[in-house]
Amino acid sequence: MLTKFVESYVQAIGDMDMTTFEPLSLFGFHPMFDKEWIARIEKCMEYSKHVSMDDLAKKIKNASHLRAQLCFILMDLKTAGIAPEKRKKIAEWVYSLLEKLAKKDVNGFKSNIKHTHSEIEKIMKKKFEKGSIEAGKLLGRLYTSAYHLVNGLYTDFYTDWGIENIGPYDLGDGRILVIKKFANLNPKLLWAHTKDFPCSGFTIYSVYKDVKFSCDAISVHTQYEGDPIKGLESFRVEIDGKETHQLGVLKVLNEFFEKKSAEQWDLITSLDHEELKKKTLLMRCFIFKDFFEHLGIHWIPNKEMFDAIKDKPWSTIYNPPKKDQNEYWRNVLDPKEEFYPS
Fold first, then answer.
1. Which residues, in sequence order, are CB contacts of 262 under 8 Å at separation 6+?
2. I need a labelling partner for 110 at 20 to 30 A (CA). Which of 193, 217, 235, 263 fits?
3. Domain extent at residue 154
4. Same domain for 246 and 178?
5. Beta bridge partners of residue 236, listed in sequence order
6. Is pTM beyond 0.90 here?
């Protein structure tokens, strides 16, 4: 099944310009401590023998996030020069966690399905508000402002930790449910000032009529066929788990995120080279905090990780072609291929 995952992620990457990640590129950053990161994952594998894999998968929570992290691990396995058999073993272990999170379309070719039929039935029994043009536009602005905030909190390439688009779920009669979940918006251990943010997350449940939705392995890569504003039949918003449907409250929240997203971006882009490396290393470990701690592993980066990035420039090991990148990334990601970026 790893072959299908690789193909799905190659499609998600597509013709993406890999030089546009801001304020740093994962391709320049991750190879700096690839061996140390793989050692951490191997430690997780060893410790996982004493816990339930089902419970461990739940500590990740976000299937789209795990797909991204599996992609990064596949890259690290190659740049670290890990032997083929060990590459396969590590990759299959991580993939087994993904299989426990995703209910259908595990590799994320066209959707991000993580709820059972009974779970969706339970959601649809809750109170939904009637859709309107005003509500559709406001929810779109709220999604965009929170999305930009997540970019400032977690960079362009850890975005999935803060945002997950989930669905679509077929409700019959040309209706679908799409869930847009924002989480971890006040990571106080990374950014102390976020302790004053009004919420840690919110979820938008949108029921669309005569609108089609799809996403790829990266769930924020969304596509709509039809008009999602006019086609918004009903919606439900939960802020920190509490129902909140007043448009006035959502407008205030949107204004807050618009302001804070700009401030957060200014903050992260103001960090110098060494500060940015340390912050992003802390970030990569933080997004696995619950996972590591469930295994009894302290989540903070260890000395070896900090030493690996100290006083060093960004890596230049990746050199994909400017056009027709698919074969390059397919060879990089496939653990069976003896292809190494250089």
1. 148
2. 235
3. 117-269
4. yes
5. 205
6. yes
